[in-house]
Amino acid sequence: MATQGRRPARAGRGGPVRRNKAAPAERFPPPKPAKKTAKVVFDAPEAEPEQPRTFRLGAIPGATPGKWIDAWKQRMPRVPLELVPLAVADQRQALDEVDAALVRLPLDDDALHVIPLYEETTVVVAAIDSHLLAANELTVADLAGEIVIGLSDDALRGADLPGTTPAAFDLLTTEEAIATAASGVGIVVVPMSLARAHHRKDAEHRVLVDGPTSTVALAWPRDRTTPDVDTFVGIVRGRTANSSR
Question: Quick one: average pLDDT of 164-171?
């Protein structure tokens, strides 16, 4: 018979292709919902806000901390700096009321940290028509016979000026003494910064080349070396905000 030698057709070879008639939802099942994760709650307390504070810097007359104060304002904008004027005669006692201070040496006290900063040149202040001003600079020998006005706020602590005569009247403040010297009565011997601070048109000053010098230093109590004090010390020493100590 004609059909006896024919083999049955194999699936997938020449026969009709059966298509998946499943519903689209079955062919493309929806994505599984994301698993919910439990929230982790930490019991650590929140950091306490920084307490408001002020850095109090004492300064004797003639000190010029302007550049250091500017640097402080840039580096510590949230900590105001208060400048507290100090009298040289009271500078040790005043250090108990401020965080740190610019003082004049000597200041011998083991309870203090003291960092010498710079030495000031000493000058002679005299009336604008004084013969002393004919020279560009003076020596102690040039002052022989001159009347030296004593100061109640003497930054030089009674410098020895052989050959001179102390004024016969009471001690005056530096400002009063320079005004008196401008009238032609005596001379005043002070650090240059004080002569500039009390400058007058009727008086002038000359450097006293062999006179005593005055050292300005930064000082603070050893038992109150706070982070703010460390920051100010770093500013004075020229350290940047990223410098290591």
Answer: 96
